[in-house]
Amino acid sequence: AEEAAQLRKSYMGNVSGEDVPLPIGSFEDLVTRFQFDSRLLSNLIESHFTEPTPIQCEGIPMALHGRDVLACAPTGSGKTLAFVLPLLQQVIQSRKNEGLKGLIISPTKELASQIFKECTKLGNKIFLDKKRPLSIALLSKSLSAKLKNKIVSDKKYDIIISTPLRLIDVVKHEALNLSSVKHLIFDEADKLFDQTFVEQADSILASCRDPQLRKTMVSATVPSGLEEIAQSIMLDPVRIIIGHKEA
Ligand code: ADP
Ligand code: MG
Q1: Reported pTM
Q2: What is the Å distance from ligand 2's center to 143 Cα?
C-alpha cells in the first residue's frame, strides 16, 4: 500500500472510490496478480509496450477486478491500452460464452478505427478454443450491411468497436443483439455524453441488458455533468484522474 501511494504521488494520480484496487507497477505484475493470458502478454511485448503509463497502472487492475471506472488522463497518455488490455483478458477468460462480450463506443470513425487496430494487434493469434480465434470487428458500413442481410451471424464476434449511430442502426434492425455484452466502454466519454450524443449513449445503455454489465468511461476531461452521469449509471465506480504538471 505504501508503494502504491508512492507510485500515485509520482504521477499525480487522484483515485477515489470504495475498496480501490492497487495499481500495477509493471506489466509483469499482471502475471502474478491476475492469471494473465501468456499470448496476450507476448503480443504486448511484441508491440513494444514495455512499461505501463500511469492511467494503465491504475486502470488495468480496476477493470480486471470488474469495477466500473471513470478514467481521466491527458491526450496521448495511453488510455486506449488501459481499457483494451483488460477487456481482451476478460473476453479470453470468458471464452466459453457465445456471442458479443465487449463493446467499445467511440464518437468518430477515425478514432474507432484506431482502437480497432490496437485491439487486433494485441488480440493477434489468440484462440478461444482450438478452432475459434478471438474475433474483433469494426462496425463498418459493409459489416453493418452484412449483418442486416444475415450474411454474417452477429454471434461470430467477441468484441465490436463502433460509433453510436451505426451501432444503434444495426440494433434497431435486429441485426446485432447486445444482450450478451458484459463490458461496455465509452471512449472520449466527454463527447459521447454531451448534448448532441447523450440520447444515443442512453439508447446503447438501454440495449445492453446484462444486469452485471461493467461500464467504463474514458476521457481527457471530466466536465461536471459527466461525473454526475457516471455516478447515476455506474455501480460503485472508481474514479481515476491523472494530473499533468502543466495543467
Ligand atoms: P490517449 O487515448 O490517452 O490520447 P493513446 O491510447 O492513443 O492515448 O496512446 C498514445 C500513444 O502512446 C499511442 O501511439 C500508443 O501506442 C502509445 N502507448 C500507449 N501505451 C504505451 C506504453 N505503455 N508504452 C509505450 N507507448 C504506449
Ligand atoms: Mg484516446
Answers
A1: 0.96
A2: 24
